[in-house]
Amino acid sequence: MIIVLRPDATKKQIDHLIEKVKKLGLKPMVSRGVERTIIGVIGEEDVLRVQPLEAFPGVEKVMPILKPYKLVSREFKPENSIVDVEGVKIGGKKIAIMAGPCSVESLEMLMDVGKKVKKSGANILRGGAFKPRSSPYSFQGLGEEGLKFLKDVKKETGMKIVTEVMDTRDVWMVEKYADILQVGARNMQNFNLLKEVGLSKKPVLLKRGMSATIKEFLMSAEYILAAGNFNCILCERGIRTFEDATRFTLDLNAIPLIKQLSHLPVIVDPSHGTGKWDLVSPMAKAAIAAGADGLMIEVHTNPEEAYSDGEQSLVPYRFDVMMKELKAVAKAVGREI
Q: What are the phi and psi torsion angles at 220 (to 5°)?
C-alpha cells in the first residue's frame, strides 16, 4: 500500500505519519519524488484498511499496490531512479558502459584492458574475482587478490569497479574494494545473499536468472529494496529457450517492459546474452535503441587465452569501433555515451 502526500505536506506531518505506521507494526519506506512524497507501507495491509489514514494532515490519498513487488513498482515511485556510483550516474540521459574481462587473471592484463576501454569511453571496469562455474574443475577466480588488482586499476584509471559477490560471507570483503556489488544470474534467487547486499550501502547490480520470468526478476529486486538498499540496477543477460544457436536468447522485450513496471534502471549484457563476440555489437546497439540505461561488455586482449568466456569477448580495437558506432544510435534515441 502507498500513502501519497500533498505537495505542501510538512516534515512534521510526514514524521507523524511514519510514526503511526511503525506503531501499527508495519515498515514505512519513503520515496521523495519531484512533485510528491510517497510512503510505501510494507507488511499486513489489512491493518491499514481499518485506519483512517486519509484523515491525517498532509495525506492526499491511500492506494493499494496490486503487484506483488511493492518498492520496485512504478506505483511506489513514478519517476525513473538514477543510481549514482561515485559520480557515474546510471539511469539518466548518459548511458553507462561497463567493460572488462570476464575473469581477473593478472594485474598486467587487467591494467591493459582497463586503460584501453577507458580510452574508448567506458566508465566502469568489470571483472570477476569470484567466478561461479558449471564445473568445479574450471577456474574459480583469484578471490581477494583479484579484488586488489581491480582496486589497483581503479587507482590508476579512475574507473569505478563492478564485481560479483557469490556468498553472504564475502559481502564485507567485496564491499571494501568494489563500487557496485554484482549478484549473478545463478544467485538471482539466493534470498539470503539478496538480503545481505540489501543491507549494504553500495549499489547492487542484479542479473536476471537464466530461467527467470520478469515477475521473478522484480521480486528478487524487491528483496534488496525491502532490506533498505534502493540503489539497485537490473541487468538483462539472456534467458534459456529452445534456441541453441546462441548461448542464451537475449530478451530485449524485457527492457521496455521492465521500464513500464519499475522505476529501476536497466542495463544489458550482450556478451552473456549471445555468447558470440560477433553478435555483441549488433545486440548492444539494439539494447540502446530499446531503452537500456547501460551496457556490460566483456573485453580481453587475447580471447584465445582467456580463462573464461573468450568466445564472447571483444578485443580492445573491436570494442573501440563498437563504441564509436553506439554514439550514433544513442543520439538517435535522445541519449548519449
A: -65, -40
- Name the domain count of the chain: 2
Query: Sheet harboring 27-32: ordered strands across?
Result: 27-32, 37-42, 2-5, 59-63
Which residues span the domain enclosing 39? 2-63
Q: Does 226 share its domain with 309?
A: yes
Reading the block at residue 119, the C-alpha cell is 580510452
pLDDT of residue 310: 87
pLDDT digits (tens, 9 = 90+) for 22-40: 888 888 888 887 777 888 8
Question: CB–CB of 89/124 below 8 Å?
Answer: no
146 and 285 together in one domain:
yes
Amino acid at 160: K
Do 99 and 159 fall into the same domain?
A: yes
